[in-house]
Amino acid sequence: MFFASKQLDINLENKKINNYCYFFRGFSFKEKKNFKGAKYEFLRIPQSFELYKYTKLYLGQIALEENQFLKALIIFEELERNNWKTNVKGFKVSNIKHNIGLCYLHLKKFEKAEKYLKNSVILYEKNKDTIELVGAYGDLAGLYYEQYKDGLAIPFYIKAYNLSKFTNDFTSKQNTAKNMAVVEENRKNLTAALKYRKEYEKWKDSLNNQNRIWETAQLEKKHAVQQKQQEVNVLQIENRAKTAEISRILYTVISLVVLLSIIIYFFRKNIKSKKIIGEQNKRLNDLNATKDKLFSIVSHDLRSSVNTLKLSNKKLINNLKAQNINVVYELLQKNSAIVGSAYNLLDNLLNWALLQTKQSYFEIKEMHLFFAVEHLVYNYLPFIKEKELHFESTISKSAKVLADQESLKIILRNLLDNAIKFSEPNDKIKIYIETSKEGFLDIVVEDSGIGMSEKTVLQLQKDTIAISEKENKEIIGSGLGFQLCKSMIKKNNGRILVESELGKGTKMIVSLPKPFINE
Questions:
Q1: 470 — alpha (psi -120 to 50), left (phi > 0) or beta?
Q2: DSSP letter string, 37-53
Q3: 61, containing H or E segment
Q4: Quick one: what percent of the chain has pLDDT higher than 70?
Q5: Do residues 386 and 334 touch, judged by C-beta distance below 8 A?
Q6: For residues 494 and 435, what is the distance between their CA atoms, to the nearest angstrom?
Q7: What is the pLDDT of residues 381-419, one digit of tens each?
Q8: Side-chain half-sphere of 47: how many Cα atoms within 13 Å?
Q9: CA–CA gap between residue 489 and residue 355 (Å, rounded)
């Protein structure tokens, strides 16, 4: 059937015949359990086709076989609503009701499942459909068993078992015997359970023998098809021999066209490759320039830190000899601050390098902002107290954002570190949130420290690493930490806004996406 319908589809343009081809191919695939191929063919059939209702029926059966119960339910309920209530060959209302009941059963809607399964049982009893009735009894019993209604389930299992004795269907006999064995095992009636188990194994062996006979028949059929195919191959070879001369000329022309196309393709590819190489060279030069500038800035900062630490250690040694404890304490605090600053610079450099080379692990997911901020504040509280700053965090426990946890910690750490660094004793630092539009949450790190000039703010917002300065040209830092923050915020699908005024403080606003709320 499949081979013949395929030939029809190839040789004829008639749409009606093509629809029959799709239908028969889909049916063949369905019978062979090739559901993907069956669905592809059935979905090509328009609603105007006279056998369209059978197409819908088969699509519903396929969805049921693939455990797509909601999809199958929609199809079968549509068939039921269309009032196709006349039983014709291959299209039974009882089967549709039974399938709807099965869908509701698997969807755990037991009340509706019971209604449809009972209706299908009544129709099967009326039409004396023995094999279908065995299955319906078993499914109705399974419905009750699923709800632990053993008293209702067992009579239907018994009915299914007794009725299966009057059929020649080994599968029905096997399934009903197995169900009875399970029932008796649950009743602790092991003698009866063993009896049904033996019967189940007997029908299982019979079914296997039947399957072997069927497989033998299939092999014979396959052999016959192969012989027929050989005859077709001989005819095709003869036909190709007759058209060989024409084909040779045609192949020559096609070869020349293909050769010309290949030459044009490689010519264009060569031009495109040169263009790409040029762009890559430009980007590489830019990256090298950025790298050189970065190394220059970082080496300058590290050299300044190490030199300051070196001079401070000399003073420390001299004051230790003189036993100036207060001065020693002040110098140790200063050294600790210098080392901490150098460590943060190196840590930012490492994270920036990992980000540029795409080696950092990055996973955006829903996370609680409160715990990330609390962990950060806990680590920085000694520095806040040491510098005599007033700190306040009003982040609520319910605040959530979509972000990578590790990169968010780095962002907040750099912003809080800068707020502490550029604040004077008795200044205030606040961390709080504001709800913005377009599904974003604003995280604000605000300080009342020394602030920045408009020139410095504009310099920070450029996508380059540059030295930031005070109004008196005092070096503040490399700007690497802020550029790292900008890169990570961008990778988290967020944005950052800087508001600052010299002598009045700075406000850093980080906007990150909020999680979607399912209504």
A1: beta
A2: HHHHHHTTS-TTSTTHH
A3: helix 52-65
A4: 78
A5: no
A6: 14
A7: 877 888 889 999 999 988 999 998 888 888 898 898 889
A8: 0
A9: 12
**How many Å apart are CA 159 and CA 53, to the nearest integer?**
33
Among 303, 369, 304, 355, which Cα is nearest to 480's? 355
C-alpha–C-alpha distance, residues 384 and 425, integer Å: 9
Please check whether residue 448 is in contact with residue 498, taking contact to mean a CB–CB distance below 8 angstroms.
Answer: no
- DSSP bridge pairs for 505: 501
Query: Beta-carbon neighbour count of residue 149 at 10 Å?
Result: 14
Q: What integer is the mean pLDDT of 170-198?
A: 83
Listing DSSP states for 98-166 in one string gives HHHHHHHHHTT-HHHHHHHHHHHHHHHHHHT-HHHHHHHHHHHHHHHHHTT-HHHHHHHHHHHHHHHTT
Distance CA 63, CA 99 (A): 11
pLDDT digits (tens, 9 = 90+) for 131-162: 788 888 888 888 888 888 888 888 888 888 88
φ and ψ of 74, to 5 deg:
-60, -45
- The rounded mean pLDDT for the chain is 79
pLDDT of residue 409: 86
Strand order in the sheet with 505-513: 390-393, 428-435, 440-447, 505-513, 495-501
Task: Please state the rounded mean pLDDT for residues 425-441.
Answer: 87
